[in-house]
Design goal:
Layout: H1 2-18, E1 22-23, H2 29-33, H3 40-52, H4 69-75, E2 79-80
Protein name: Competence protein ComEA helix-hairpin-helix repeat protein
InterPro entries: Competence_ComEA_HhH (IPR004509), Endo/Exo/Phosphatase_dom_1 (IPR051675), RuvA_2-like (IPR010994)
GO cellular component, one term: type II protein secretion system complex
Length: about 90
């Protein structure tokens, strides 16, 4: 019985992490790379952008070099900025 409960808890933790939003202002390069159509180069561009201009809202994501409307649309439900939207 304990093994079943443990397995269920582990599954819930994994599901929670899988559906957690990515904070554009604090996410690691690996976390950013987990977004649709975002590889290492775009992830680094996001990090470089936020060092100079912290994201105030998720639409600013489109200001990053290499990120257009399509990339934004594919990811908008998984993004946040830490300004009360995470």
């Amino acid at each position: 019985m304990k093994k079943i409960i443990f397995a269920i808890l582990m599954l819930l933790m994994v599901c929670t992490l899988a559906f957690a939003k990515v904070n554009l202002n604090t996410a690691s390069k690996k976390e950013l790379s987990s977004l649709e159509y975002v590889g290492d180069a775009k992830a680094q561009a996001i990090i470089d952008y936020r060092e100079k201009n912290p994201f105030e809202n998720i639409k600013e994501f489109m200001k990053v070099d290499g990120v257009g409307e399509r990339v934004f649309e594919m990811n908008k439900d998984n993004l946040c900025t830490g300004n009360g939207d995470c």
